[in-house]
Amino acid sequence: MRFDIISCQPDLLDSPFGHSILKRAQQKGLVEIYVNDLRKYAINKYGQIDDYAFGGGAGMVMMIEPIAKCLAELQAQREYNAVIYMTPDGETLTQNTVNRFSLLQNIIILCGHYKGVDERVRQHFITHEISIGDYVLSGGELGAAVLTDAIIRILPGVLNDESSALTDSFQDGLLAPPVYTRPADYNGWSVPAVLLSGDTPKIEQWRFEQAVARTEQRRPDLLH
């Protein structure tokens, strides 16, 4: 699977993709991540990629020309299944959306900045608009990192134990149940006895009941 991320601040993405699970996934050859510097497609030698908004108002707008040139170059090399724009007014990211994207082969993610992109970019080039929550960040890079991480971790072979991703919160419509590890007793705080019983059916039943209870308490909207 290949990700091409378009950003005017590419250095912001060095750390998220250079460590832990995402780094290992690239080393294994399971995924390719490329961060494309939008300023390489600037309209002049000064690296201009933004301009004032028609009609006035505060803030700058990302211009259509650099984005169109970058997209044209990428799409001339391969076919992309999705061109995603990270924006606060996009569809709120959910695990179901992540699962659908994980079935694709090549994805472009455009990171917004300033007051956003020229609306014609959204009208003519973008296939999906995604938000990671009802708040505003300085740019789309952190959102792109969140989306990329969420997709990659569920790809076959990325996690050492593939069943781990299947038992995460939201995969079955529930929050994950509580988890414990050694020591079994700390300061008089004991691990539930059923988890030490070795009785797998009872453990799975306990986990399911705990997941339902936690979801009912914290996210009842998922159950109704």
From TrEMBL:
This is tRNA (guanine-N(1)-)-methyltransferase. Its EC number is 2.1.1.228. It catalyses: guanosine(37) in tRNA + S-adenosyl-L-methionine = N(1)-methylguanosine(37) in tRNA + S-adenosyl-L-homocysteine + H(+). Gene3D superfamilies: 3.40.1280.10, tRNA(m1g37)methyltransferase, domain 2 (1.10.1270.20). Belongs to the RNA methyltransferase TrmD family. It is found in: Cytoplasm. GO terms for biological process: tRNA N1-guanine methylation. Homodimer. Specifically methylates guanosine-37 in various tRNAs. S-adenosyl-L-methionine binds at G112, I132, G133, D134, Y135, V136, L137. Residues 1-223 form the tRNA methyltransferase TRMD/TRM10-type domain. Signal peptide: none annotated. Its main location: cytoplasm. The keyword Lyase does not apply.
